[in-house]
């Protein structure tokens, strides 16, 4: 009975925290990115881009271990339009410390979690989005993942 209850609890926790999605760490990175989650994203099981609805916030979170100390982190979320062009999502809150513990400490694993507003003006399409969290000293955590905006 204990084993069944434990499995049920772990399943409920996994559903509450979001689906683990595929991501790619940036080539230059001062963090270890352990896991990225998006809620809702039933497509994660088949390793496909998450279908994100416009006009509804998407809950996104990730676990990371910085290889630096910093009192603050500035967040940015960009659409990777091409290899040399990125467009910022203006509605993104830049103060990452509102959504994770600051100061960040070298070698201490932590979680960043935020609801991202997906505005109706964003065209329906596939996108590669890039998350970047930069410290005042230039050290940063960075990764990309794919989404698909749907009605």
TrEMBL record:
This is MD-2-related lipid-recognition domain-containing protein. SMART domains: ML (SM00737). One of its GO terms (cellular component) is extracellular region. It is found in: Secreted. Keywords: Secreted, Signal. Residues 23-147 form the MD-2-related lipid-recognition domain. The lineage of its organism: Eukaryota, Metazoa, Ecdysozoa, Arthropoda, Hexapoda. The keyword Acetylation does not apply. Its main location: secreted. It comes from the Eukaryota. Belongs to the NPC2 family. GO terms for biological process: sterol transport. One of its GO terms (molecular function) is sterol binding.
């Amino acid at each position: 009975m204990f084993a069944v209850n434990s499995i049920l609890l772990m399943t409920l926790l996994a559903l509450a925290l979001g689906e683990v999605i595929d991501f790619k760490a940036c080539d230059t990175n001062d963090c270890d990115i352990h896991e990225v989650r998006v809620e809702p994203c039933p497509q994660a099981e088949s390793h496909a881009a998450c279908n994100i609805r416009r006009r509804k916030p998407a809950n996104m979170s990730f676990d990371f271990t910085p290889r630096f100390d910093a009192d603050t982190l500035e967040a940015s979320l960009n659409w990777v339009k091409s290899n040399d062009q990125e467009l910022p999502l203006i509605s993104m809150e830049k103060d990452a410390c509102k959504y994770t513990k600051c100061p960040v400490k070298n070698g201490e694993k932590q979680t960043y979690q935020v609801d991202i507003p997906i505005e109706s003006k964003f065209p329906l399409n596939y996108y590669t989005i890039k998350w970047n969290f930069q410290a005042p000293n230039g050290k940063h955590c960075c990764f990309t993942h794919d989404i698909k905006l749907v009605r």
